[in-house]
Design a protein that fits this description.
393 residues, 17 helices, single chain, 3 strands, mainly alpha, globular
Length: 393
């Protein structure tokens, strides 16, 4: 397949990566302006994404995908992998989502983390997360996706355990990291099976080779990719980490658990839809896992009192619906629900952050040492916080 070449794709990832590196290396000198710089890097990445989207709309449907080769990464015998980027109709949706919602969360974090002495480090991690997530959705092969996949795992570990002076928070970040490693084993096995049976790990190469592959190989790759997806997009049996991951600051919950990281598994299944469609067994298992998780997580959500945990289990349940859509072959519907969910759940998490902030002040004023996140202490928010009430609605 001959694709258009665009040498500007790398800047989408380079901007937030540069922001992260600068903030981490500049030290305390960047404390005064670091948060604004990080937000600007994310916003510029969004603007570049919007330009790419506009250019894409100007071309006919067959020629919309663009690619960029950065360098030859691995070249050993018949195993050749380029560090390359691919921007097509699927990845542009995610690019706009990650940078758009990500920038809004950056803006929200400026005030939310105002009194935190480590605010600069927090913004450096946010930028790192955005860069890794962009690489995940723009990589043109399994291995490029894998680098972004691991980068997102690292950034989420750093963000969830941001207040690691509290043992519970440090444990939560470790739990998320280990659950993700279990899923990552599935992705690495899928890459190995794909290369062993098809001789290539690029998306286009695998799609072309899938026609002549055995049913066993396709099912094995599909099930391993599903294992990877259950780790990143918390599905049964690897869903346990998401509830505890609420330990991180609220903007982290909005970024990781609503808009971006947890949708990576759904993106991957959508990206590999041809492989999945050719293996009815895998499709059945995907739909089954999704249906089980949707019911199971919603039931757990009913029994929670912590406002952020309720939203977390709601996220797991919604992801279950996306998996069901993927499993029955409605890939477009699954991605559509992913897009809408990213916006409404990010809004809900940021709204809950606003409520928790107000609860802290109210409890502090009343000299009460109660839990600011316990919903049993809340009520009458429409009169007290009309703007938050409206955005929540």
């Amino acid at each position: 397949i001959k694709m258009l070449v665009n040498n500007g794709l790398v800047y989408l990832i380079a901007l937030p990566l540069f922001g992260s590196a600068l903030l981490l290396l500049a030290g305390r000198r960047a404390d005064r302006w670091g948060h604004l710089f990080a937000t600007a890097m994310s916003a510029m990445s969004f603007v570049l994404g919007a330009v790419q989207f506009y250019e894409m709309l100007g071309r006919d449907a067959e020629n919309r995908a663009v690619t960029q080769k950065l360098f030859t990464w691995i070249s050993v015998g018949s195993f050749n992998v380029d560090a390359g980027l691919l921007l097509d109709q699927l990845s542009i949706c995610f690019v706009l989502l990650i940078t758009g919602v990500g920038t809004l969360i950056h803006i929200y974090s400026i005030a939310y983390m105002d009194h935190d002495k480590d605010r600069r480090r927090f913004f450096a991690y946010l930028n790192l997360f955005i860069a890794a997530m962009l690489l995940l959705v723009m990589g043109d092969s399994y291995l490029n996706l894998y680098v972004g996949w691991e980068g997102v795992g690292l950034a989420s570990y750093l963000l969830i355990g941001f207040w690691n002076q509290k043992p519970a928070y440090a444990t939560a970040s470790k739990k998320a990291f280990i659950a993700n490693r279990v899923g990552d084993m599935g992705l690495s096995f899928a890459i190995m099976i794909a290369f062993a049976t098809m001789g290539t790990v690029s998306f286009i190469g695998v799609q072309e080779a899938a026609e002549g592959s055995s049913q066993g190989a396709l099912t094995a790759i599909g099930l391993m990719l599903l294992l990877a997806a259950t780790g990143k997009s918390p599905q049964f049996p690897l869903q346990a980490w998401l509830g505890d991951a609420m330990a991180g600051p609220t903007p982290v919950s909005a970024l990781i658990h609503a808009a971006t990281m947890v949708t990576a598994g759904v993106y991957m299944i959508g990206r590999m839809n041809i492989l999945f469609a050719m293996s009815p067994t895998t499709m059945f298992v995907v739909a089954l896992v999704g249906a089980l998780t949707a019911i199971f997580a919603a039931t757990i959500g009913f029994a929670q009192n912590d406002i952020k945990r309720v939203l977390a289990y709601s996220t797991v349940s919604q992801l279950g619906f996306m998996f069901v859509a993927m499993g029955v072959g409605a890939f477009t519907a699954g991605i559509f629900h992913l897009m809408t969910h990213a916006f409404f759940k990010a809004c809900l998490f940021l709204g809950s952050g606003s409520v928790i902030h107000a609860m802290h002040h109210a409890l502090h004023k009343a000299h009460l040492d109660d839990d600011a996140q316990d919903m049993r202490n809340m009520g009458g928010l429409r009169k007290k916080m009309p703007v938050t009430w409206a955005t929540f609605g």
